[in-house]
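User: I'm new to structure prediction. If I give you an amino acid sequence, what do you actually give back? Let's try with this one:
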Amino acid sequence: MSTQSPYEKLGVSEGATFEEIQTAKTRLVEELAGDQRKISEIEAAYDSVLMERLRLRQEGKIKVPDRIRFPEKLATPTPVEAPKPTTQSAQWLRNLIDQPSARDIAIPGITMAGLGALVYFSPTDAVLQIAMALATGSTLYFLYRKERRLGRSVLLGIAGLLLGFAIGGVAYTFLQPQMSALLVTNEVLISLVSFLVLWLVSSFTK
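Assistant: Good question. You get back a string of structure tokens that encode the predicted 3D arrangement of the chain. For your 206 residues, that looks like this:
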């Protein structure tokens, strides 16, 4: 049975540097190419020397280079791309816009279309007032059932109503000649446009 120490098997002294130990191990492995048993002995001796050096390092008796003690430090870390900060405006828009189902689009649409037809074919003041009240109330209901937030529903409903009035008034200014030919009054056009805007609000906002 061989009594050689790991240092002797590598052909280096106990005071050899890590570079000398590495060089000796590489040289012996190249020289013994084809003799797997002896190569295994050389690698075992090399591992034994490293383990002893690491133990001495932990005891504070020798200094071990970082590349030996901590080889993972040699690897260059892969930079991680930080996620792009979300702007407040984009976040606000996502919180406002809904992705409705076909049912959530169809039911408010049918409601507003029915009220629009009622106003168009019976444009009396009483019908206009009742239809506008029903349209506003329906919008509040459709909005409230999504988030169960009454204040937000009222705010969006009022905003949609005012926006509809504004767009309807502007549209009538530009389309007045055509409206006269179709026998559509200012109040009717504003009501129809308001119903359209309220449908968009009740379907696509939350």
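You can read the tokens as a compact description of the fold. Here is one thing that stands out. Residues 6-74 form one domain.
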